[in-house]
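Here is this case:
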Amino acid sequence: MALTNASRPAATAAGAIIQCIRRTHGLPARVLAGQVSVHTGQRPCMFHTSAPRAASVKISPSEMSRLLEERIAGWKAQTATEELGRVVSVGDGIARLFGLEGVQAGELVEFQNGMTGMALNLETDNVGVVIFGDDRVRATQSDAYVVYSISLSRMQVHFRRVIICPCVYRSVLEGDSVKRTGRIVDVPIGPGLLGRVVDALGNPIDGKGPIPTKERRRVELKAPGIIPRKSVHEPMMTGKFCAKVLCCPCGCLSSNFVTSTACTGLKCVDALVPVGRGQRELIIGDRQTGKTAVAVDAIINQKEINDSTSDESKKLYCIYVAVGQKRSTVAQIVNALEQRDAMKYTTVVAATASEAAPLQFLAPYSGCAMGEWFRDNGRHCVIIYDDLSKQATAYRQMSLLLRRPPGREAYPVRTLSCVRSLCR
């Protein structure tokens, strides 16, 4: 006889167990004496009971029900259900999907080859998705094939070896499966982003490893209303170049006026167009007039004040969003910030000209979401968008490919609304 219990019984309990079985079944002692050996064992997953039970003893229905309820409560499904769809058509970075009936606007979807996209057009019979990346993969040298051409000239045969590469083929094909992720497009946030260069989705592109943060935030959230907002009454920062200036010409003070300037390090800017905390400022100019230089100088000039204090509420963190610029230009800006030790309080969000249009459109929203973390944690942050005209161009490209009605100069009607939401 084998006895298995939740805890291993003592060796002296074998005789007591035999006597218990004999009394239960009404057997004489000579029947079991010398004929039964007890092997003890332990099984922790068994239900523990203080009294041993014989095989013929029935368990009460209530106890059996309780055991089953405990087993069912601790059961976890090994498989997860996913809502799948199919690619109906694809081209120019836009995919039309069928089958994702529960997809949300702005939700992240994943294609069969691992690429991701964002659902924008929710129509009755299909879903329009912008693909984050290039939906085309160019042929490599191994995909080329050799053709020998033969020509006859002056009774001589000439052989010529020609290497022909096939046409560009697509990485996202019609009929591929696509699944929902169940989450709206979001980016990582937190102090771990300081000193890093990330793309529009928050993925590091500086080769310094993963970002040490677990917090995430949606890229598009409703801005605070008018009532919760404070008036612009405090300078962006205080420094040796700053001077308090009354914006009211009559000398009266009002909560609606900016009563202090911000220190950008440029005296003409601080004197003529002072920047207060919570204020938006446009840098308008023609090409190659120094708009980016003004923004980069303002970032570098925060180093002296940030190094002079240990109070996080007095520091000013910077986020530089590069939209539609060349990779070499972004690399030069990052190099300039590193040489002047300004990257320790700066985050660079880069969506270069070689990136897909959806990433260029999404980059300013990602930078804004990263900056709002500092606002929500009692700190200050300045965000520089360089520049929003390229974001509008990318949004126009996306809208035309999604068959949205165009407006003036083929820009969609919602273009100004996008800029307004960023300013808020």
